[in-house]
Amino acid sequence: IHKIVRNTLSSYDYKTKQRNEHIDEAIQYIQDNCGTNLTLEGVSNKYSFSANYFSELLKQDTGLTFKQFLIEKRMMKAIRLLLSKEQNYDVETIINKCGYANKSFL
């Protein structure tokens, strides 16, 4: 299972599609900050998009809504933390590092 997950994580790259440069930056921002309290409005404002337009561009490029994309990034981060050989994180720490306020959210 570890090998399958690692191969999936390493081969899963949205940069294979042509996109607006600001979309690339926004996607990278979401990936880098998925452990924080991100919102569609906050990210779209940061890159001077309307929320609707940014949502549409993200959906075209990734096939996912903002919420789906953010959840996917958080789950990928959780998988990486669970598989980490350098750190032995407990579940509550992983939940917090992945942007979830508490265990009841899951």
Model description:
With 106 residues, the protein is mostly helical. It is 62% helix and 0% strand. The chain contains six helices and no strands. The protein is globular, with a radius of gyration of 15 Å. The protein starts with a helix and ends in a 9-residue tail after the last helix.
Give the SSE layout:
Blueprint: H1 2-11, H2 21-32, H3 40-46, H4 51-62, H5 66-83, H6 91-97
Helix pairs in contact: 1-5, 3-4, 5-6
Largest sheet: none
State the secondary-structure class: mainly alpha
- So how many helices? 6
Helix content: 55-70%
Which radius of gyration do the C-alpha atoms yield?
15 Å
Kindly estimate the percentage of residues that lie in beta strands according to DSSP.
Answer: under 5%
The count of β-strands is 0
Distance between the termini: 22 Å
Reading the helices and strands in chain order gives HHHHHH
Q: Low-confidence runs (pLDDT<50, min 5 residues)?
A: 14-18
Form type: globular
Write down the overall mean pLDDT. 84
Relevant terms:
single chain; 106 residues; mainly alpha
In short:
With 106 residues, this protein is mainly α.
